Amino acid sequence: MVEKLGLDPNAKIADWYFHYPNCMYAVQESKGAYLRDTIAQLGSTVWQLKQRGSKVNLAVIFMERLGREKQLYEIDKNIDNTLKMRSGKEVKVEGLSIHLFVRADVREIRARGRL
Amino acid sequence: MGLTITLENVKGAEREFIPLSDRVKSKVSLATQVARFYGDHFKVERAELWKYATLKELEGIPLGGLEIPDKYVTRENEAELSQKMQGLAVVDLFFSIIRFVGKWEGEGAEYEAYVSMSNAPNWSRVYGDVEVNVFPKGNVRDIVDIFYADKTTKRHLVDSFLDSFSGFNDGIFKVKGIYFALGVPSAEDFDLWRSAFVSSETRLLEDAITALKATGDEEIRKWLAPYSVPFLVRNLREIPRFETELHGFFDEHGIVEKETGSISYIGEDPESFKKFFADLSDKVLKPVIHSLPPDSDIASRIRKTIEKQSTLDAP
């Protein structure tokens, strides 16, 4: 992805940049063990992509679990798993909402067959 | 978690009035010592000062910074940083976070890295007082993946660190815990630990039971509900056979116990703690838990006693 999109290989880079059939462009990060650092990585990638004129409509994070960081953040399941601070403020990178899914959410979504 | 250090007040110091600026200075000093310890790998580029959090996206407010041209935090850098901190408003100092940002140079690879010192209470409750980590890249998810690349690296970067920092005490703070783990430090994620320095074996067992309660197993959670974790650990530790089993698990899974006032538990392999936790849970804790009267039994006994008492008291 780094070579193909001309991103800085030394910068913080997310794992995936992909294109949905409905014309949505998404950036996804799924490796990080820390939510805080994953947000930084996602933000850096979205910024770089936008600088190069690439479209980004969705920012998505997949994590194993939220763990102790749930003391600082929460997931709003009523609004497509949007990530918020405990203060209620939505977390955004480059103006985009972040949609956070943990393993248990993925199981639930699969069972439901939709978001 | 990467590498996380938690601090506590030195006994006696909590009763004295220690100015906030001195407490912050103490933490800054520890963070710089940690950055210097890893100086062969961690090439510092700048120090950033933040309030509340280290990202604007997380309500963080930048408070300035300092360029570090030598790639190494010198005494002069530390003094300049302390001076900048003294110039902050009290509320800014109270919620301050300092982050040394740079590159971690590993075997043929370079990673964005940081050493952080947190003074903001809600932030340090989650991320610890001092932390070291890299941003994930390639197969590296966390700095512990680098530390545990091979036994020699682990000995230099983990064992030596524990030897050097477990006794930290500057008269204001002393080290309470040091954790090497994947992700944010938490007793709930015991299976992600790699090595740890904790106050006692009792504390380690309390963390293991807390982790078991957090596994999401509804049956275990209900069974354990009436019992406190310290009660269970106290009673387990009074059984000589349990101690033998416990140390057998340490040996079997390559966890080396080193007593240095408190105790360091050094996992020889990345999976040491995971395997230790699995054995301790499956072979000891779960059978013990299932032998205890469940919460429904206790609730029923309470109900029967009260009802019986009411019948006797009735006119």
Number of separate helices of chain A: 3
Q: Strand order within the widest sheet of chain A?
A: 1-2-3-7-6
Which oligomerization state do the chains in this entry correspond to?
heterodimer
Q: Roughly what percent helix of chain B? A: 40-55%
Q: How confident overall, as mean pLDDT of chain A?
A: 79
Q: How many discrete structural domains of chain A?
A: 1
- Quick one: which chains have the greatest interface? A-B, 27 and 29 residues
Mean pLDDT of chain B, nearest integer? 88
Give the total of beta strands of chain B.
10
Question: Which structural class is indicated by helix and strand composition of chain B?
Answer: alpha+beta
Count of extended strands of chain A = 7
Order of the strands making up the biggest sheet of chain B: 3-2-4-5-6-1-7-8-10-9
Specify the overall morphology of chain A: globular
Shape of chain B: globular
Q: How much of the sequence of chain A is in beta strands?
A: 25-35%
Count the domains of chain B.
Answer: 2
Q: How many strands, what sense, and barrel or not for the largest sheet of chain B?
A: 10 strands, antiparallel
SSE arrangement of chain A, N to C:
HEEHEEEEEH
Helix content of chain A: 25-40%
Rg result of chain A: 14 Å
Strand content of chain B: 15-25%
Quick description:
Chain A is an alpha/beta fold and 115 residues long. Chain A contains 3 helices and 7 strands.
Tell me what you see in this structure:
The complex is a heterodimer of chains A (115) and B (315). Chain A is of the alpha/beta class and 115 residues long. Helix content of chain A is 27%, strand content 28%. Chain A has three helices and seven strands. Chain A has a five-stranded mixed beta sheet. Chain A is globular and about 35 Å long. Chain B has two domains: 2-181, no CATH class; 195-299, no CATH class. Chain B is 45% helix and 24% strand. Chain B contains twelve helices and ten strands. In chain B, strands 3-2-4-5-6-1-7-8-10-9 form a ten-stranded antiparallel beta sheet, sandwiched between helices. Chain B is globular, with a radius of gyration of 23 Å. The N and C termini of chain B lie far apart (64 Å). The A-B interface holds A 10-13, 31-34, 36-41, 43, 64, 67-69, 71-72, 85, 87, 89, 91-93 and B 1, 53-55, 57-59, 103, 110, 112, 122-123, 125-127, 133, 135-137, 141-142, 182-186, 188-189, 192.
